[in-house]
Amino acid sequence: MKKRTLTLLLSAALCVGMLAGCGSSNSGTADTPSPSSNPGSSAPVQESKPATLSGTVVTNGSTSMEKVMGSLIEAFKEVQPNIQVQYTGSGSGAGITSAQDGTADIGLASRDLKDTETGVTQITVAKDGIAIIINPENPVADLSVEQIAKLATSEITNWSEVGGNDGQVVFMGREGGSGTRDGFESITGTKDACKYQNEYTSTGEVIAAVASNPNAIGYASLSAVDETVKAVTVGGVAPTEETVLDGSYAVQRNFNFITSEGTPLSDAAQAFVEFATSTDASDLIAGAGAVPVAK
Amino acid sequence: MIIPFTKGRLSAMKQKLRPLELFMNMLFFLCGFITVVFVLFITVYLIISGLPAIREIGLVEFLFGTKWASTASEPSFGILPFILTSIYGTAGAILLGVPVGFMTAVFLAKIAPSKPAAVVRTAVDLLAGIPSVVYGLIGMMVLVPAVREAFHLPDGASLFCAILVLAVMILPSIISVSETALKAVPSEYEEASLGLGATHIETVFRVSVPAASSGIAASIVLGIGRAIGEAMAVIMVAGNVANMPSLFASVRFLTTAVASEMAYASGLQRQALFSIALVLFLFIMLINVVLNSLLKKKKG
Fold this sequence. Notes:
The complex is a heterodimer. Chain A is an alpha/beta fold. Chain A has helices spanning 2-30, 66-79, 92-101, 145-152, 179-188, 203-212, 241-245, 267-277, 282-287; strands at 55-61, 83-89, 106-109, 120-134, 142-143, 170-174, 198-200, 216-221, 230-231, 233-234, 252-260, 291-292. In chain A, strands 1, 2, 3, 4, 6, 7, 8, 9, 11 and 12 form a ten-stranded mixed sheet that branches. In chain A, strands 5-10 form a two-stranded parallel ribbon.
């Protein structure tokens, strides 16, 4: 009996300590800039946001967004140490569903909402540009999305068919489960149909392999492409951050937060959305290999 | 007179050292126990995490299915391509590596003068110390393009490259174990052979090598173990597509199947990767059992 009292007392003391901790960090985070520029969001903007919030934000969805979410969550901990942001990678479809049925505060989707997916809105956090890379010796400079798809599925097997030298096309990519692979295959409409010559476990390996084979073609995150390979223009548009942002570069997709239209976001979730769409997060998103949309 | 004295002193020392002795005994026991615990833990963990996927997919479908498409909309999990690739790759590496390694061992143990032998031995030791990722890197940057040029292939990353890299990687274990076995042959055997009029080479191949055969066999099994368990070097030169194995095709080994997809795997795909690891573990256990029985035969 006595022991229990002691335990209770101790936990009470702990709670007080925690609250005190909250109080002291108030002043610490008060001057952290968190502009509520929040394009595309229909969620009501918080009027008087307390400097320190606590709670849990459940996010669930796209595995492609894992890296972006990882760095966002890590940095958000610094800003709001008492908000726990959880991430579960289950796929874009599952992410949208979880936002619809309320099992997640924020659903994550690496594609735009379809017309059939109602009751939710999307907030584009970042864009993911995928560069189509070939060997610098290859004279081909421009490909259309259809041509890329045909090269990937071995419908076109010789480079001469797309204006290059005579040589068998060698298509290289990432391993099953990779977000870049998923992105490439879904954008070019080649899901489960790609005929890979080689599969690599990292973007760096794909680039090295393409750089060493004159007939190779592969794909890589835009941010990882270097001068050892040539990124082809797609439909005449070169892959750069600008063309990805203005939407003219075709091989790209949106990283979206999916929020419910019916139930408003919790304060904690709202704070996370604002953080993710703020300019503070831009460097983090760029560091994770995506193109930030916040200006 | 001396014996009781010594005995008395020893027991006196024993009395004095007992607590320390006991402590050290415990420490050694603990260290030995840790190893056993790790082996048991890994075994149990692999079995527990490897079995669910096999149960869900079906043992026959899993082991003998020829199609691996873990992330397709209708996934299929057949690992026969990986099993066959691992077997072919290892066999190929043994086929190339054993003759070279064996001859080097004979050269080092029986033929070479001491100076050249020392040079070769140092080279072998250095070869053993090179990290596998370096083998892989050199294979990727030098061997793969060279194979592409030499055989006019669309791309060089293939089973063939993996075999070449593995053959080099298993050389040190084959050489050093075979050499030790050859050196352990009693010189009386060889002297008798030479005394009967056999030449040096005849003696080596008719007397020394048969006498060291179990040690040489152990070296081969060790090489097999190293080849089948290698992942890093192989993942960089083999192409990693789940094709049925053929010499110049891009292939995926058991080890690389686990390594390449683990990072982003989820659900049944992840469980199936554990099942592949379980299969690989069984292979390596089998090789260890063979190795142990060979070494026992050598002693007996």
